[in-house]
Fold each of these.
Amino acid sequence: MGLSATFRCFRGCDGSYPLTQAIYRCPKCDGLLTVAHDMAALAETSGEEWRRLFDRRWSATSPSGVWSKREWIAPEVPEEAIVTTGEGMTPLVSSARAAGPVRRLASELGFGELLIKQCGTTHTGSFKDLGMTVLVSVVNHAVRSGALDVRAIACASTGDTSAALAAYGAAAGLPVVVLLPRGMVSVGQLVQPLSHGARVLALETDFDGCMRVVRELAARGLVYLANSMNPLRIEGQKTVAIEIAQQLGWQAPDWIVIPSGNLGNAAALWAGFSMARDLGVIDRLPRLCIAQAENANPMYLAFQAGVRGEVPAVVARPTQASAIRIGNPVSAPRAMAALEAMGGVVEQASETELADACARADRSGLYADPHTGVAIACAKKLRARGTIGAAERVVVVSTASALKFTEFKLGYHERTLPDIDAALANAPIPLPADVDEVAKHLV
Amino acid sequence: MGLSATFRCFRGCDGSYPLTQAIYRCPKCDGLLTVAHDMAALAETSGEEWRRLFDRRWSATSPSGVWSKREWIAPEVPEEAIVTTGEGMTPLVSSARAAGPVRRLASELGFGELLIKQCGTTHTGSFKDLGMTVLVSVVNHAVRSGALDVRAIACASTGDTSAALAAYGAAAGLPVVVLLPRGMVSVGQLVQPLSHGARVLALETDFDGCMRVVRELAARGLVYLANSMNPLRIEGQKTVAIEIAQQLGWQAPDWIVIPSGNLGNAAALWAGFSMARDLGVIDRLPRLCIAQAENANPMYLAFQAGVRGEVPAVVARPTQASAIRIGNPVSAPRAMAALEAMGGVVEQASETELADACARADRSGLYADPHTGVAIACAKKLRARGTIGAAERVVVVSTASALKFTEFKLGYHERTLPDIDAALANAPIPLPADVDEVAKHLV
């Protein structure tokens, strides 16, 4: 088919750059880059043919959900360079089933149909796997083909990004360097990158200082930068949109709700759904809700104020949804375009609201991390306000495994979390080891 | 097709009992029960037809891997009673790929092909989901059809079993009771059942005392017992064997290695592979390795001593592989039969061996929990000894998410675990925030 993809300026400056080039911003305007596909070549295959191909590849012998859509992502990466852990093809759990973990939650919140896309049920326990498999595979291809000569892939991160980068780097046999501020990060936050053998450098500076160092190392060509402005990650993340449509029998839902801080994942949903529509695989886009924590809500404030251009930065306050505690989101321009294209809205959730949403979800049989709690709480508000209709089909993207948030769950049930009213806390009941006594306390 | 399944005595006493009956032992000999299928009715469908049916059901719109094999499991449970979280269809990650998380590990250990079946990449983070979806669905069907009248489903457990039971019970809207010894269990071990709204009763007794109370409650008909002797769980767990064969293009591997304490999961592999062979879906059984922790090794000791009947109990010592710390395994008779049928062996791993296997696996890009470490360490020994040949294809079943074992990972890398030589420990490196200095420490 002769498919190809290149980096282009997101704002539209001239010029295109190979995906194997270590380039992170437009050389002309210093703005964001995007991955541009040869849509004319892709359109030579009909929507029906794409659907059949992708359905055939969703099978027991398929190694990866992301790479089962490889023509739409990075078509020039050869099979042997692909670094995969079996990411993607995660459950989409629906309230439409008589007995499943979303049923009671949907009924309590008044949804016609609520579905949870379980992106945390994956190798490193977060949505980040979807993007990191693409970034590391492209770098692997570039290094092995001689197009790129770096000593390591690097990021300044303390969370899911460093975990995913370290795992995929280890799988590829590529060195990984993680930079973080000394004394400001617990070893617990670093247990995944340490386990994967990443070189973890604790610098005598703050987080911004780490970013300055890693950018300078990248500028000198010593490391490849795996930060969130890199559009290769969005290419992988966009498959979540295609998978959701596929799991619904090639239908777009009415609404898609995603917790978002740096806003790259919201941009990825737009990229995935719009590519699927443009290639005739689905017939329309869902409406988008970007869900933010009230304590880190620059996009919410901008949207409420009618801002449609540059998003003013805020000082992000602590939130249990720590991965979206971001005051100056890198992908704000992309997310603004996504809101425009998808009839989107921005909503926010307070600490009590996100914790209450998690507790309700857990009692329904889900196990929701705080970010998914933000998304559920925001969806609840939109439903209560009538923005989401009673008969509409709503997909919430769950971005991480709650097994990463044991302290949060414990704190909730022990009622020790600051600023959170733990109305649904549950505690062990002490009893004597007497059968009659226990029989009185069974329900 | 008129398919059916009933409880029968594992030793062969007369009598059969409906799956909806609350029965846990043979009423005649007090021995284990098994689920017996109408194999003649199942054999009316050819092996080729079963393969095609199961392949068609491994798709984007399939709600559950376990229930995609429903005719082989609990054919009389109606669709609307099935309680599912999307369990099964987990990745089988192979060293045969050029770049994946098993490649380096397999090469270091000298395997021809090593594959890891990622059963921890699932709703509650453990293999237990596979069995619990069946147990809770059958109970749900029995309660809703009026065949069973209980106030709750109950277990005496502090680990993965109580987490899975609580999640599936919540999804079904069935009350769940977890009994545990007061003061001997941390709240951290209970965070999943508490979150799912289970009633957690902390009794003034030890673990055996809790078992006595829960059995008496079951004998009085007050609760349904979800303990590990219940063969319904094995019916769900056996799908892991069928899935592995399916993911290999309907081939059995040469070896299957599983960490096992109570030995129900080893019995489940036998049940799944032998049913697939008997119905013409695969042409042979793999060889089985039961992997035990040296600190809880009754099956290993019995096997070494040539015992082929009753397994003498041992006092299990503490092990990082806490879920298989069992001295008197419930399913020992089943596991003995599995070893006999599958040309099986039993191997053991010390604390340092299991921790070293985890560390090597993690550096290869996996993230191995201690039980998977036991299995990898045992496979390594069999390979080194030549029991497993250089060209053989070996599948290791990973039974839990390592995200449940952060303390173990931290302890290893901080070198604080007792009795463990943490040769591959990795620690953050403190550095000044100076680009030239950092550049010297990139690899």
Amino acid sequence: MAGNSFGKLFCITTYGESHGPAMGVIIDGCPPGIELTEDMVNVELARRRPGQSAIVSQRKEQDQAIILSGVYEGITTGTPIAIQINNEDPKSKDYKSLENIFRPSHADYTYKAKYGFRDHRGGGRASARETVARVAAGAVAKRILMQEGIEVFSYVQSVGNIFLEKEYQSLDLNSIDANEVRCPDAETAKQMFQYIQDIKKNGDSIGGTIFTVVKGCPVGLGAPVFDKLHADIGKVILSINACKGIEFGSGFEGAKMLGSEHNDVFSTDDNNVFTLTNHSGGIQGGISNGMDITFRSVFKPVATIIKEQDTLDTNFNKITFKGVGRHDPCVLPRAVPIVDSMTAIVLVDHFLRNLKLKK
Amino acid sequence: MAGNSFGKLFCITTYGESHGPAMGVIIDGCPPGIELTEDMVNVELARRRPGQSAIVSQRKEQDQAIILSGVYEGITTGTPIAIQINNEDPKSKDYKSLENIFRPSHADYTYKAKYGFRDHRGGGRASARETVARVAAGAVAKRILMQEGIEVFSYVQSVGNIFLEKEYQSLDLNSIDANEVRCPDAETAKQMFQYIQDIKKNGDSIGGTIFTVVKGCPVGLGAPVFDKLHADIGKVILSINACKGIEFGSGFEGAKMLGSEHNDVFSTDDNNVFTLTNHSGGIQGGISNGMDITFRSVFKPVATIIKEQDTLDTNFNKITFKGVGRHDPCVLPRAVPIVDSMTAIVLVDHFLRNLKLKK
Amino acid sequence: MAGNSFGKLFCITTYGESHGPAMGVIIDGCPPGIELTEDMVNVELARRRPGQSAIVSQRKEQDQAIILSGVYEGITTGTPIAIQINNEDPKSKDYKSLENIFRPSHADYTYKAKYGFRDHRGGGRASARETVARVAAGAVAKRILMQEGIEVFSYVQSVGNIFLEKEYQSLDLNSIDANEVRCPDAETAKQMFQYIQDIKKNGDSIGGTIFTVVKGCPVGLGAPVFDKLHADIGKVILSINACKGIEFGSGFEGAKMLGSEHNDVFSTDDNNVFTLTNHSGGIQGGISNGMDITFRSVFKPVATIIKEQDTLDTNFNKITFKGVGRHDPCVLPRAVPIVDSMTAIVLVDHFLRNLKLKK
Amino acid sequence: MAGNSFGKLFCITTYGESHGPAMGVIIDGCPPGIELTEDMVNVELARRRPGQSAIVSQRKEQDQAIILSGVYEGITTGTPIAIQINNEDPKSKDYKSLENIFRPSHADYTYKAKYGFRDHRGGGRASARETVARVAAGAVAKRILMQEGIEVFSYVQSVGNIFLEKEYQSLDLNSIDANEVRCPDAETAKQMFQYIQDIKKNGDSIGGTIFTVVKGCPVGLGAPVFDKLHADIGKVILSINACKGIEFGSGFEGAKMLGSEHNDVFSTDDNNVFTLTNHSGGIQGGISNGMDITFRSVFKPVATIIKEQDTLDTNFNKITFKGVGRHDPCVLPRAVPIVDSMTAIVLVDHFLRNLKLKK
């Protein structure tokens, strides 16, 4: 209710501040009987971990999952799964100077105005460090999806003006993690990497887009009206720090299309119903239709830059200020596993919501 | 839980099928003491009503609100407000021929697959007629926003390739309803109107975009992490039939920007804190910052077209089929009040969630 | 959230005031494929209907269910079921004199203090007339329970000091409706009937208790910790007007028992696991164990009596006042179907919550 | 949704198993600006702690609260409060022998049937050790109540047949913790203590009742219909391990009363509205009326006894079995702070739900 929980049947609640002792997540509603170990979670955390390459924040965190409940002898029991990740390298001192500053395009001002009190260190609860707890939950969700034959693939489609034009069908989606940028086209990835390094040297930051495709989703996920599958995916993706937009299937391009061009014609072969095109992005009337689910999300450049900027202090005096603290020049590579995780969580939630009475 | 409710403190639940006896909404959580009459609701319903102009569906519905509870002598009492709108012109016969067809890009196939049973008449629950209940709820939400000095303005920004390039600041937002298209630029509206008429003559349909601005929103609405203000707005706008995407502030353009360009610098005059630019779209860290909230949503062309199309029947045989039933060649003009309504509902919900303990 | 909804997967929301135009309920989450007609609902409404005998309120209501959505050709479709019951005999004039009075032990004072505004006619939303909507929802829940072989039986166990000592196992539970009191022991029922008639003649009212047994409940319903099956049953039964307490299994008598007496020893025959005693009331650790679920609820005497009483007017002046309006001298006979209904709703909700992933 | 959360605006989620590494609670929705330290939580935990006297379980737990988030420099920030309590003395070996046994009147059988998998050690999630997390949350709730002038007092009213006949008004409620039994009448407490010691020596257990009174509750808490204040209190008290019933105000005695006896007559003095009697238990129409809120709850004897009992093993073979593990011969003294805590949590939740729009 206060906004730190998501999901109806697979419900996650996260806690922790960037520079407090620990981050964590409680997953209530995970079915019993799923194999789950700390290592399975760690694999996903490693994809999001700072310090993993030259183009991400150099904060040093091992990000090791500690499972505190809900798993017995490597199997989920149906009781709440608590996963904790300790903060090892907070460097709170770095942030002392920020105590009385409203940094541009950060949440400093809005949190202060809303709550009156805040933990300013490293953005506190507003920090993207919160997403480590989401990825831990996503790791659990992915175990369930795997069992059901559903796979989520996200990759960096653009950084600044560098845009991967190829369609996802022509890419090797298993090569996403083959480079630091998480763009499954080696040549484009190389350009992106170089570009991000230049941005970083310059003390600046840059935005980009992520393309996501879900394969193997059965027909029938999503609830009509308010909890349409893409509405719920939209909500959680938009809830990721720095995300400013999302589009499904034809997306904004669909605004320019005629119905006769846009309609996805149903067809069939011996075994399957499918559509000849997929402008719907795999979702019709809010419910998955068995085709690939596709969407694209956009992330603004991170607000922390190592440049002089005008702003206000907490007494509303005009000051100048230069960013400090370790930061990502481009969040996209680390946003990939977060987008994967949030998508997986929504899919599991709707999968469980779609269980049916036996005849 | 089954997806027909939205909102935590201002919670709406809609019911009704396109060709059933009535549509309706229950609003649970409306504060007591708000002036509310059926006429106040009817004004909003009239903006969404079919048959209001030559470029919308000609289904004849008076769409008169009947308030069944929650209001006594013109004042809300704090108990649930039930508003019903009878269906007067269902013409179910038109749909008899559709009983055994999966129309392309409709929800026929997904509903059938999900539920096994469906009311096929006019799309049943999947019909955009459901949104009449949302607009009724939106009318109530707007009464509360009015009292708090918050205004929501949505307008048609593009239809097909016709795009209104002017910024919202240069438009007269009070003239949105001055033309049938709901584009507050008379010249552009005229082009759009002509274009939609041509589309209609052709039996086709066309997509477009809506621009929304919220004025007067106080600082502090929105909850951190999952219930960020734009995440909740995103969810409800994406839940509107035919909506395929949404972007806030700089949106997808932000992908190409540097942090040093994108950051919104705080400043102040004698009375207010503001930012010099508004790439954030009025929301930072998921919480409103007092600037205008801005977003853009895209609507695909409606699936019903009066053209021959290939598809499958409910036995999965390939057939050809030509659309019947009254439909909108372009949903944008009627989507405007729906976008307004859903935005208003989210804002009221977060306004109530932001009430504070007295010191 | 504002308290007019209950249930997680089988979620009901009621609306309507005693003297408004209609009462109603929206059921969101009813599975598709359940046979449902208005007559099936009417059968249950008739059990609760005023005017059904000499010992209940003589308000004349036909209480005919109108199904507005969610059912097509006699089968539920999975979309929200809206059921409306029109108010036909409100006699609001009777209540004009009550506009400025806080009646003793009614909700007049608390509603006024909470909301500032209220519909005073017949108690408005606080009236037990609200329960007609619950019974309509209960009728739907019972259809699902029937399909799963689960039956709920409630009967009047005591009225004032007249107490049916026989255990439920020795009663014919199919004879509950055989008399006006709904006590399945003809001799005791006769005494109760006579006693209630005397109370009524006297302008007074009397309390009593209801005993409920659920037969055929499978093992496994109920969720650990907060949503224990008896906790959820407790909540909804206590939410019925005039209910002041509930006890499960051994109940308050259990306070005096030793563990060695109270423990229910497990045993087995060829087909079943069972316990030799059932002090647990069919629920262990919050989860049904397959034995009969048993509980007892108490209803205070209704506050409306046709006797002179001291009280305050809405300006806090001391006045005397004599009850008007039609009322029940004893709510117990009509409370029976309400207790049945609320129990059925909780059971269906937990039944749906207990659906499992397929292996 | 899976039952490990409670509360709408002040929402708690607990995790942890009896013999896992830790127990904990996340509180989402605690207002910012409340003073909170680990010591404030520890004071409440000490009231519930095992080993605190000769008549409770001798499991050795320090039960020290570790606040992981939501508090900065001793003040709540409005972000989720995570409190963890490590398990220090699990003695899991004691439970090895129980792995394949369904103990009588425990949750072993129902958990196994529901989930297929369970952590059998010490009852796992079904253990009353879970309540340590509730008491931690209750400590936070009590800080808010204190600020609002609301106090909750629970005490042991009966153990077995030893019943404290005095009314709460004649007792010194500040002396509840003056003895090990938590009965604020020294003479009765002494008898109870002696009786419990005898029970313990005998390897048996005994039930009892707790009386609770809330002082200083403002008028207006509670929501109509399903979330009546006593319905929500009823739910959470019934959700406490071993609780089998609850009654408010006149309770089960009310069944025998006439309306003319039971009605609480309103009166007034210069400053206050009050009722001359309080059969309503401080709640009318589900909403607090400003009088003391009173209720009584019953706890069955704990299932663990050190006596030979018949039961089944997990292969459904009949066996005999004798309890092992440390246990409470009578849960009542330790249940007192749990009842206090759950009551405080409900009151805070409804206090926040009762915040109003400013005029």
